[in-house]
Amino acid sequence: MSLAIVHSRAQVGVEAPAVTVETHLANGLPALTLVGLPETAVKESKDRVRSAILTAGFEFPARRITLNLAPADLPKDGGRFDLAIALGILAASTQIPAESLASLECLGELALSGALRPVQGVLPAALAAREAGRALLVPRANAEEASLASGLTVYCADHLLEVAAHLTAQQPLPPYQAEGLLRQVLPYPDLADVQGQPAAKRALLVAAAGSHNLLLSGPPGTGKTLLASRLPGLLPPLDEREALQVAAIHSVAGQGPLAHWPQRPFRQPHHSASGPALVGGGSRPRPGEITLAHQGVLFLDELPEFDRKVLEVLREPLESGEIVIARARDKVRFPARFQLVAAMNPCPCGYLGDPSGRCRCSADQVQRYRAKLSGPLLDRIDLHLTVAREATQLNAAPGQGENSAAVAARVAAARARQLARQGCTNAALDLHAMREHCALQDDDRRWLEGACERLGLSLRAAHRILKVARTLADLEEAEAIGRAHLGEALQYRPAQS
């Protein structure tokens, strides 16, 4: 047979569109032509494949070989198609049976010796192969990651000869079985280790219960970073769908999806990070920090030290839960449903309002420092809290106060009520759902409207107050939002000057 078809997968963002590798052998001068919009790394694969086939002891056809990677308008890059190309050539030259490739998808880079090398982005391809009803053949180093897609038959090999022996039924490969993979959870830092700060712990509880964004402001050394690092331990465990989303993102980014499977991510980029580092980008778009924090926490310490243009790119994903990176050739959509926790000092020296009176910043310096943060960005942060300095207690016993497990149980109960009532957390409520689930008594509504007018709050801020109040009611197992819930929610909003 002079025509062979092998199934593979490309990588576009966190998606894995199907690619069909078509191989045709024709009479004529020996040549190999590769078409189908291949990038440089794919074009180079023909030399790697030729060497791998010859080194493995197979015959490289001395004919005119045409390789088509369809669809032709989909960009293809990397060495992930090496194995599929090699198998296509072997099948078209009848060295392996072409029919054995019909129910199989192949990914893998070939060494010149014929050894299989791992590639990035295997998990999205595994999920797509499962949906297509095919088995997946990958290098052994990628097998554990591919096995995260439950219900998928995964085959793994170390060399092209093993793959050929499997396809010719001489020595079939056994389906890969993962051992001890599904629970490699590392313990989160415990909230009980934080001394004092009852108001900040309460704000963490509210933020975790309703998936709200949080801004902590206070002098250096008051525990802002310590508090932020405890938030992931208060959130409910990821379900299988969410865990696969997180793992697929880290697979595409090449950051080890199995390192902390299936924990929520906690990302803490430095304030010198650029816009593309935060939102993703590049000629071949890759996920940035906000996508790597999907289903987890993005912690921005020293918030005013970030470049203002960098911070402004957060405004859209905070509302929509995704980021779209457009390039001249394509457009890539990355998920970005994260909780933002930010920390900042109240002034350039950090000690404004400290009882020690050590702050010497002028009013103009304080104003310029706070002006680094735009109003629209601050408006999208639900909870604003000032963290005061606690008395120094070097010999305080650890484990005082409510621990993370107890708080996480309250958070899980509140979130269960939200999901049963509206199918999402309170922070994700749209306007239509808010009218139904955040309804107020007429007196309470007029009271809130008057308070928002006196504080100069925007309509967006008023909506976020309602969402926080709904979370407070859920924590108390209350059916309706009361005046006390509105009052506490208002305390988390600063007045607008």
What would your notes on this structure say?
- This protein is an alpha/beta fold and 497 residues long.
- The protein has 3 domains: 3-167, Ribosomal Protein S5, domain 2; 191-390 and 397-425, 3-Layer(aba) Sandwich (Rossmann fold); 429-497, Helicase, Ruva Protein, domain 3 (Orthogonal Bundle).
- It has 20 helices and 18 strands.
- The strands form 6 sheets. A 5-stranded parallel β-sheet has the order 11-14-17-10-18. Strands 1-2-4-3 form a 4-stranded mixed β-sheet.
- Strand 1 and strand 2 form a beta hairpin.
- It is elongated.
- This is YifB family Mg chelatase-like AAA ATPase.
- Residues 288-387 form the MCM C-terminal AAA(+) ATPase domain.
- Keywords: ATP-binding, Nucleotide-binding.
- It comes from Stutzerimonas tarimensis.
- Belongs to the Mg-chelatase subunits D/I family. ComM subfamily.
